[in-house]
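Title: Prediction job returns without error message
Component: structure pipeline
Severity: low
Priority: P3
Assignee: unassigned

Description:
Job completed but the reporter wants confirmation the result is attached to the right record. Sequence as submitted:
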Amino acid sequence: GMATGIVVTTVLPHATPAAWSSHSSYRSYYDFIAQQQMQSQPPFDVLMGGGARYFDQRRKDGRNLVAEYGGAVVRDAAALRVEVGRSGKGQLPLLGLFADDDMDFEVDRVHAPASPAVEQPSLAEMTRAAVTRLKATGKHFCLLVEGSRIDHALHSSDPASAALDALAYDDMVKDMLLEVAKNESVELISVSDHSTGGLTLGMQDDFELEYTGDSATWKHPPRSWRPSVLAGAKMSTGRLASKLCCDAAYSTPSAAGDFVSSNLGVTPSSADLDLMTEARARSSGSCSATEAIADWPRGACGMGMQVVINKMIQRASGCFLTTSSHTSEDIHVFAAGKSRQRFQVAKENSEIGAL
């Protein structure tokens, strides 16, 4: 009998929202999962995220679920604001599809959007809109919100994109804490499913010593931790790598170096420029429109270029990522509202849902 909603920054049929909204034998059956999300009974009151191509005529079966949908559909931040202004008695379910695939990383959303003519809403704006919509039903509600692309940035070994998406998630949590303060019946639980990337701070990877008489010193001093460097980024390293590989304007070392400096806030060394030139040499010489703006490049040039750029910003910031996979450390659980005391000691992950 509760109103329900999902807000994510990946495609809507991605793993976490799928677990809350479907039954599927395989997580990547996106068309199948999207169909279940749209045909849920009772229907979801709010669905927002990316992945439009799994809901319209581009599906493998050619079916246009958006055209069949009986609710309101919004495609950008401006339309979302208009629709939220209509929230109230008799409102329709709301579907927000803000990208064909995943929504932009926060750094790209603000500074280098995939589609400059289409403004994507922030995670905080989507969540505020969802809460407004759900409260207007007059029912108690359950809302899942995921800062989904933090994980993607860490899989890509991009510390700046990860940090800025985490701060966008933090902005959303600040808004929701205000909801808790206004209404004692509201409960807020924040948890991740795992950690990714193996973050280590100020990693020292060269332990060579120099000896002077009876004393020894590090030949290369331990690196310090300078997270403020990450704030200078204006583009995800994936999108930066894609542009360097696909755009002829950056084919020379000097042009490529200037482009990196202005968008990453880090100046490439001569060795970095040599590695970037080597990576570009692996380019096929032609890129599709999608490849040219990809924030998770797959080709030999893009992947090699992103590795070079990642190492540059990791060295400059002292924020090193030691794996591109999930890691096994304990994760944190935060709670506000009446249930918070139940989360104050270590729990098995399988206990969280029961609490």
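Comment from assignee: result matches the submitted record. The longest helix spans residues 159-182.
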